Amino acid sequence: MSRLPEDTINRGLPGEPQQPAPRTRREARERYRGTERRQARGLPSTSTGARSLRQAAKPGASLGAGHLGLGAAVLTAVEAVAGIALFLTRWNDYSMPWLPAAAWILFAIASVGVALSVMTYGERLTGVAFVLICVVLACVVTLDFIGVWPEHDLAHTATASVAAGFALLPVATLRPAREVATAITVLGLAFVAMSIASTPITADTIPGLFSMLALVVVPPSVAIFVTHRFRQLVQRELDRVLVQSNVTAPQFAVGMLASDELARLDLAAEKLLDAVANGTDPLPLSDASSSVAASLATELRLHLIEGRRETWLYHAITESDHLGRAVSVADPGSLAGHLTPAQRDGLLQALWQMVGDGRGLQPGVPMVSVTLGPVGSDGHPVTDDTMDVPIVIESRGIPRRRLGPATWSGLARIGPYTDTMRDGAVHVHAHCVVSRHPTM
């Protein structure tokens, strides 16, 4: 059973206001994490770092999706211009042309307003703004439907209402997919109901109705899919860059999460020493301050011990969002720390290729398992300067035929290897010759 680390900062020193004790374990965990993030960073509210964190936390386009939004906005503008031209050429065919014209005017005003808002406040869209956009689009669709009702031919007379579907393209890059999908569904159902109510369903009208419905629903749906896959791609590449930073890490080191924890402990220790220096808590220390100092010393000793056990491979796997869910590592002898940077890079490259998109057969079950050691197994000798580290990799996520050349190239950089298929899994047995006294 895991134990929550003691919040030595939040407890404070004598004379400081005390927060009420948490009532639930969840409240304690959330309070600890919030205090850790706030105190470990130590960012003043007016600093550049604080502004960056606030900007990153705001809803809107992220990870370069704003470029997709710009392209979607251009496509929406092109469709709107074509729709207006089509409406003007058929002006005399409408019984009530002023209602569709009003719909187009409302659509243009809303488009200009959204464009000015994006240019002024950046690529973000709040929930209230999204609801307002949906209300305006609903008004556009309603006005257009009422204007084309007397014609009883929705497929050839609807213009502004079709543009409302294209207006959801740039929104797909600014709001969660489920919200945009809900708006698309409601719009599609409105077109289906209007088609059945206003247009005779015959063999001549059905193709036009289906084409119009596809024109309304398919483009924003494709925008949701493309945006989602683009964000996945960017996040995966960022995660891979983060993992690759461990290639040149020392044999034993603390990871990024531990670095944040050490920053928290450092701030708490500085806070305690400053209280002693300025006389707020004079020597000898009070019982409360002594307890804080003892807790800090204990946590620092624990980090010192962990820093001599956890290798770069452990941090590369546990700190990766993709590898952490799909890869398990067994390295009781901490042999991964002896690998050279080239061997480390080859091992990580092979693991990334074997993991693929990170979708395992069962949630929580690792797709790839890596076992290092024991040294000198299978009759391979160990000399005074070098040793043979057996590395066994078992992959159940992707069939062997789907492992591309990049996988085998990475394995070749580790050392000589053999691969077999057993029980539907790919077993790779590599022999990695390393130095007994690594310089890293």
Instruction: Give the averaged pLDDT, no decimals.
Output: 77
Ranges where pLDDT stays below 50 over 5 or more residues in a row are 1-18, 21-26, 35-59
Largest sheet: 5 strands, mixed
How many DSSP H or I helices?
17
Radius of gyration: 31 Å
Distance between the termini: 35 Å
Order of helices and strands: HHHHHHHHHHHHHHHEHEEHEE
Strand proportion, as a percent range, falls in 5-15%
Number of strands: 5
**What is the strand arrangement across the widest sheet?**
1-2-3-5-4
Shape: elongated
The percent of residues in helical segments reads 55-70%
Supply the helix-strand structural class: alpha+beta
Summarize the structure.
About 60% of the residues lie in helices and about 10% in strands. By secondary structure, the protein is an alpha+beta fold.
